[in-house]
């Protein structure tokens, strides 16, 4: 599969992408039913793009390897969701060291797994343009562009919230 991300895959990798697609569909529906649209539109957009692209891989049994590579992005989600749980629980104020460690790991895995993976995927798609039919190339390009824009905004928000504002607050406290 490392040599051919288009037509080679194992039963396990197909199952991984299938289960992941089911998770994204479930989470999409949960957000539609239980969140305000204004609070969750970015997640809905993300899930729509992922479900569309992953469904192509699941149904055609093509590009499964590419979808598996895309799932590397989700490694960062562990720290992203950990950050959200710490904030929701109110531990952020009482566990500064744990919160700071998670912030550093979150930003580090964001660069390593989100930014790097999406950059690699964009490069792969451009290099393999002649091997991908135009409609699928268009879906992949638009999907990657949408996900990259959303991730750039998310990265900026995380950086501002966890590092830039934290630095300003420390400066304010010293004054």
From TrEMBL:
InterPro entries: TLC-dom, TLCD. It comes from the Eukaryota. SMART domains: TLC. The keyword Kinase does not apply. It comes from Alosa alosa (allis shad). PROSITE patterns: TLC. The lineage of its organism: Eukaryota, Metazoa, Chordata, Craniata, Vertebrata. The keyword Membrane applies. Residues 1-167 form the TLC domain. PANTHER family: CT120 PROTEIN, TLC DOMAIN-CONTAINING PROTEIN. The chain crosses the membrane at residues 37-57, 63-82, 103-122, 134-159. Pfam families: TRAM_LAG1_CLN8 (PF03798). One of its GO terms (cellular component) is plasma membrane. This is TLC domain-containing protein. Keywords: Membrane, Transmembrane, Transmembrane helix. It is a multi-pass membrane protein. Its main location: membrane. It is found in: Membrane. GO terms for biological process: membrane assembly; phospholipid homeostasis; plasma membrane organization; regulation of membrane lipid distribution.
